[in-house]
């Protein structure tokens, strides 16, 4: 357990130093780096309404006009990939986005990619891209918690922070990054932990750190869809209705957001064990954001029941890894290795 805590401390320090060093990057020499912006929507592209605002309404062109300082740090061009609240992100958009990012990087024309994105599922998009992008050039997702037309909009500052970060040499060969509240987080650790604060992202502990040029073996080029994987949320007195529904719908994998250390009530555990026998891949994760789920020292015998322990991955990140793993293998030991190391080893 000790090495996990140490890794968390190291990672947090790295993120802080990296973010701090970005604040100091006020001058650059030589030709400006080229950054391609892929706009997907979110509150950073939000427009106020009578009750609050609608995400994904303002064009990237308008958003960029509010931050003319960006041009001091990079030569920018942009595309409006979609304009949605990230609650409407889905597997199909993730596949297209990963293909597009790989295509832009392979063109060799750009030094970095910046993706504007909603914060609700930013950590999932970042994690998906981190496992499917194969070029070390920096990729960063940038969000905001206040709409573009708010008088105290936070999007412009986050954009500036992100651009200053990705043009630095230290940004190459890292994980996909997320920028919010003027801070940078990396894909494995990032998670949203506040529904309203402008500092809504945080970092959890991670078992492995995987720059996006690491050889995960997950390629999206020839994929038209991802295997169906669902998440079942557990709670005191939960029934098996949701789990049964996923099984009956033919889902290939199911992630259990268990209580505490990934624990499951007896009915859930029995049905999940039966599903394993019928060929469904079951990952046991937890609704608790810190500490992870491991077979060793826990209450559930994953080996005997055929479950996969999620390690430090949240249910939503476990879902993404399981979907991608199922595109390359059906072998439980190989999939366990992905959960333990991020790669097959
Ligand atoms: N619902 C918005 C989204 O995720 C919230 C945000 O961007 O902060 O697109």
Architecture blueprint of SSEs:
Elements: H1 2-23, E1 34-41, E2 47-48, E3 53-54, H2 60-65, E4 75-84, H3 91-106, E5 112-116, H4 122-132, E6 139-142, H5 155-166, E7 177-180, E8 183-186, E9 190-192, E10 201-203, E11 229-233, H6 241-248, E12 253-258, H7 266-277, E13 281-286, H8 302-305, E14 307-309, H9 315-326, H10 332-341
Parallel strand pairs: 1-4, 1-5, 5-6, 6-7, 11-12, 12-13, 13-14
Antiparallel strand pairs: 2-3, 7-8, 9-10
Helix pairs in contact: 3-4, 4-9, 9-10
The structure holds aspartic acid.
Structure description:
- By secondary structure, the protein is α/β, with parallel strands linked by helices.
- Helices cover 33% and strands 19% of the residues.
- The chain has ten helices and 14 strands.
- A six-stranded mixed β-sheet has the order 4-1-5-6-7-8, with helices on both faces. A four-stranded parallel β-sheet has the order 11-12-13-14, sandwiched between helices.
- Helix 3 packs across helix 4.
- The longest helix is centred in the N-terminal third of the chain and has 22 residues.
- The chain is globular.
- It starts with a helix and ends with a helix.
- The relative contact order is 0.12.
- Bound molecules: aspartic acid (ASP).
- The site of aspartic acid has 11 residues, from loops.
- The site of aspartic acid (ASP) has 11 residues, from loops.
């Amino acid at each position: 357990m000790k090495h996990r805590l140490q890794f968390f401390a190291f990672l947090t320090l790295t993120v802080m130093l990296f973010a701090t060093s970005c604040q100091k990057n006020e001058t650059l020499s030589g030709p400006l780096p080229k950054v391609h912006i892929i706009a997907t929507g979110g509150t950073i592209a939000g427009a106020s309404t009578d009750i609050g605002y609608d995400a994904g309404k303002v064009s990237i062109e308008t958003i960029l006009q509010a931050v003319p300082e960006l041009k001091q740090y990079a030569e920018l061009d942009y595309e409006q990939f979609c304009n949605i609240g990230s609650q409407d992100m889905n597997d199909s958009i993730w596949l297209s986005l990963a293909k597009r990012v790989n295509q832009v990087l392979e063109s060799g024309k750009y030094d970095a990619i910046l993706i504007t994105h909603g914060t609700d599922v930013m950590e999932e998009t970042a994690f998906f891209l981190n496992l499917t992008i194969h070029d070390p050039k920096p990729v960063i997702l940038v969000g905001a918690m206040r709409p573009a037309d708010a008088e105290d909009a936070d999007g412009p500052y986050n954009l500036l922070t992100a651009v200053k970060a990705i043009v630095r040499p230290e940004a190459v060969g890292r994980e996909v990054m997320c920028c919010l509240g003027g801070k940078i987080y990396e894909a494995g650790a990032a998670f949203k932990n506040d529904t309203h604060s402008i500092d809504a992202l945080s970092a959890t502990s991670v078992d492995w750190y995987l720059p996006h040029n690491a050889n995960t073996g997950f390629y999206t080029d020839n994929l038209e869809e991802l295997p169906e994987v669902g998440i079942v949320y557990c709670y005191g007195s939960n029934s098996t209705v949701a789990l049964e529904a996923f099984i009956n719908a033919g889902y290939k994998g199911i992630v259990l957001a268990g209580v505490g250390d990934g624990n499951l009530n007896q009915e859930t555990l029995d049905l999940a064990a039966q599903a394993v026998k019928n060929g469904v891949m079951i990952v046991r994760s937890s609704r608790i954001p810190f500490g992870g789920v491991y077979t060793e020292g826990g209450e559930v015998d994953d080996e005997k029941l055929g479950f996969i322990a999620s390690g430090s991955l949240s249910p939503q990140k476990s879902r993404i890894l399981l979907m991608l793993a199922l595109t390359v293998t059906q072998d439980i030991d190989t999939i366990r290795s992905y959960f333990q190391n991020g790669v097959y080893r």
